[in-house]
Design a protein that fits this description.
CATH topology of the largest domain: Purple Acid Phosphatase, chain A, domain 2
Shape: elongated
Helix content: 10-25%
Radius of gyration: 26 Å
Bound molecules: fe (ii) ion
Strand order of the largest sheet: 3-13-14-15-17-16
CATH class of the largest domain: Alpha Beta
Length: 520
């Protein structure tokens, strides 16, 4: 039964409520706005609201979810046409109706299971020049082995052994540039020597030269003639094609990064809507059924806005205290259902050292998070976990990385620059094929040692954040995704031309392989 005041509001506008109408679970304000928008009748006219109209109101918010198609590999990524084939999410879901949770509870008794495969805890070893040498030597050896495992690179020899026969060399890219005449010159270095390689526009893999970045390890086949080694074929370590295995249990993993608690642009309403949805308090029946399948929530960094991260940030904070920012985070996420297991790792706004790998949140600052009553895993950035391993399912391997290095490649690699932050999925695929999260020195801060940013373990899901836009796609059988954020556009983002798309949650179903984006 409509409250009297509301009934007046409807009748004032000429909307008559049919007596046999079932108005259970309907938010009247939402309905009123909907009617105004859709059936705005002229003054003095009457309009009867019947069950069909109520049904169409409910359907307006029914999710139209779509899986996404694949993406060409890096060999075809350069073709303009390939980009266009990449799936766009044409449909988005908005959780507008504030429908009260039905009595039906979809939640089953599925147990979560997390295996932590890689978690970088802080090691306070003194660093010196030799740490940098061992850093790049370890990178060279590890990626060289990946290149050798490809099996299609012929006659590999050390650079100091190059003679006049056709051979292949593996090395770290020391310098590279395009000459005025259009040739590509690259200086490659291995443990024995360096070599200058000339790749002319007529060579077989010339198109791949635009994908080469400094300090990565690649292989080049060719032949020496005079002063130069003429390169013909270029090989990257590449991400291997994966065969997806399916969980027998219908389980969904949700990804929500860049919460930015403490910022005056923090979008509390959107976060509360998301948490309400997880608690089956918002959404229609279909949406709540989906919420009930969420058993894992991954948060890849920037839990808080932090302090002193960019110039003038202090003017944009409504909680200018990291302790209180983390306490507030714990307060919000304490309301996540018991059935969901949380995984949190830091980003560049969190109060841990910036150099990657970033250790798990410090207990000193983030104590309230450590004290949360939830099942929570507080891990490093990057980290690698296996989700939901069962007797009949090997689990889903998830590489979690916040994404601080991303800005460098978007700015420096021409084909990524062309699409900027709009097509972050291209960058994720590009890095997977490099088998490195930040190959170029200076693209992120790092602690020298054994190069922990190499992608050694092959993930089923590569989950990132930082960009404040949600994207989800498939690549060679794996899932690549970027979570969005719960923060509006800051003055800093305005200055650098970023356009965040807050409140969107990528979802991966481990049983069906379906990918979804949910907007709050
Ligand atoms: Fe962020």
């Amino acid at each position: 039964m409509l409250k009297e005041g509301l009934l007046d509001k409807f009748s004032e506008k000429g909307y008559l409520i049919s007596s046999d109408l079932s108005m259970e679970n309907i938010n009247y304000d939402e309905l009123y706005d909907y009617l105004l928008k859709k059936y705005n009748n002229k003054e003095g006219e009457m309009f009867v609201i019947d069950n069909d109209i109520i049904e169409s109101f409910k359907n307006e918010f029914t999710p139209k979810l779509e899986s996404v198609a694949g993406f060409p590999d890096i060999n075809t990524i350069l073709e303009e046409s390939s980009f266009k084939k990449t799936t766009e999410f044409s449909s988005k879901i908005e959780l507008k109706p504030k429908i009260i949770a039905p009595k039906k509870d979809f939640r089953g008794d599925i147990e979560t299971n997390i295996e932590i495969i890689k978690n970088h805890t802080i090691i306070n070893k003194k660093k010196s020049i030799s740490s940098f040498i061992s850093h790049y030597s370890s990178r060279f050896e590890k990626i060289k082995n990946m290149l050798l495992l490809r099996g299609d690179i012929k006659d590999i020899i050390n650079i100091n052994k190059v003679g006049d026969n056709p051979v292949s060399v593996i090395g770290l890219v020391k310098h590279c540039n395009t000459t005025k005449s259009g040739n590509f010159i690259i200086e490659l270095e291995d443990m024995t020597d360096t070599i200058n390689i000339l790749i002319t526009p007529s060579s077989e893999d010339f198109v791949k030269t635009s994908l080469i970045v400094l300090d990565e390890v690649i292989a080049i086949s060719g032949k020496k003639s005079g002063r130069f080694f003429y390169g013909n074929k270029i090989f990257f370590p590449e991400f291997p094609e994966k065969e997806r295995s399916s969980s027998k249990e219908d389980v969904v993993v949700a990804f929500a990064s860049d919460i930015h608690i403490g910022s005056n642009m923090f979008l509390e309403k959107k976060l509360l809507k998301f948490i309400d949805w997880l608690n089956l308090k918002k959404g229609n029946e279909k949406q709540m059924e989906l919420a009930s399948k969420v058993k894992y929530l991954v948060i890849p960094g920037d839990l808080i806005d932090g302090i002193g991260i960019y110039p003038g940030q202090e003017k944009e904070l409504n909680i200018p205290d990291v302790y209180k920012q983390y306490a507030k985070f714990a307060e919000y996420f304490e309301n996540i259902p018991e059935t969901i297991e949380l995984i949190v790792s830091p980003g560049n706004h969190d109060a841990v050292r910036m150099a990657e790998p970033q250790p798990p949140l410090y207990k000193d600052f983030a104590e309230p998070i450590y004290k949360m009553s939830k099942k929570i895993n507080i891990l490093s950035n990057p980290c690698f976990v296996n989700l939901h391993k069962k007797d009949d399912y090997p689990g889903s391997n998830v590489l979690i990385y916040h994404g601080y290095s991303f800005d460098h490649y978007i700015a420096e690699v021409p084909f990524l620059r062309k699409y900027g932050y709009e097509k972050i999925e291209y960058l994720l695929k590009f890095l997977l094929d490099k088998r490195h999260l930040a190959p170029t020195h200076g693209s992120t801060l790092f602690t020298p040692g054994s190069d922990e940013l190499i992608i050694e373990n092959i993930p089923d899901i590569f989950a990132t954040g930082h960009i404040h836009k949600a994207r989800i796609d498939k690549y060679k059988g794996a899932v690549v995704l970027s979570s969005s954020c719960f923060q509006g556009r800051t003055s800093f983002q305005e200055k650098v031309g970023h356009h965040p798309e807050p409140g969107k949650i990528p979802l991966v179903n481990l049983k069906t392989g379906e990918l979804k984006l949910m907007e709050f």
